[in-house]
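Hi there. Long-time user, first ticket. I'm pasting a complex I've been working with (about 306 residues overall). I'd like to know whether the download I got is complete or cut off, because the file seemed smaller than I expected. Thanks.
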Amino acid sequence: MHAGRIPVAEFAGGFDLQATVESGQTYVWDRPDGEMFADGLAWGGDAWYHTVLPATEAATNEPEVLRCRLVGDALEWEASTPDAPDHLRRLLRLDDDLDAIVEATPDLPLLERAYERYGGMRLVEDPSFASLISFICSAQMRVARIHGMQMRLAREFGDVVTFDGDTYHAFPTPDQLADATEAELRDCSLGYRAPYVERTAEMVAAGEAHPDEARDLPYEEARDDLTQFVGVGDKVADCVLLFALDFLEAVPLDTWIQTAIEEHYPDCDRGNYADTSRAIREQFGGEYAGYAQTYVFLFLRTQRSG
DNA sequence: TATCCAAGGTAAGTT
DNA sequence: AACTTACCTTGGATA
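Hi, the file is complete. Here it is re-exported in full:
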């Protein structure tokens, strides 16, 4: 067991762990109390969160357990690897300068309210395959159920990892998921998404394509590239670019953002995805437009329940 | 208790 | 290229 503390003072602009992992951008984290994405959950707690790093991203080539919580003025962590701080910095984008990002954001009332309410929320950099599958599953689905699906997939098809006396499940590798049948995936309550997940996993497992290949392309080409995967349209592609492949300018046009465009920025509605995307990206300041999108998404989605 | 409805959309078929 | 429609499942709302 390796453990340590990282002072929050090291994170420019602060850090809100709960807002970051429960904002609906990542579905690879969980909390042991079963309250992940719980409806009406009070914000501001100091719960532990854990994830399993894929073997392909670990120096040991084994899945590694990472867990952390925010206590007082530090991020406290425990892990199966001494490399945890580096992994956490990458996965939770702890080196992003939030002050500079907010500073670079246009002065729009909606953005200011969202930043005010959830200041310290950071984007994540999820492992790309898990992000791809997560957002294929996200079609017409609530965030709590998307999370439930990913946990189920890990439990059914992923490696079992034990750490500090507890059992964890890694997200399935492309091979493991490609081996699952459509019927087995439907049994995991994926519904019509089951064949999408199966066929996309097969594409990656067979070496036909990999989401990481989009990382070095120009933004709009990268988005087009990701749509080659079955079940991936423009919106899901934007999510993977933003939440896994470091494209901070990507603005996924989901139902919440579409509503925000109608109510606050009607001039940005250009009638089709590509042009509307370009317009709202400009409206949100370009380079970090994806940060603005995620703050707005979380803010609007949680307004009703507080 | 039964029925209805919408949830971070996409693919396939039609005009 | 723009427009329709079908698609699984489930929790919460409505009757």
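A couple of notes from our side: Chain A has a mean pLDDT of 96. Strands of chain A lie at 2-7, 49-53, 64-71, 74-79, 160-163, 166-169.
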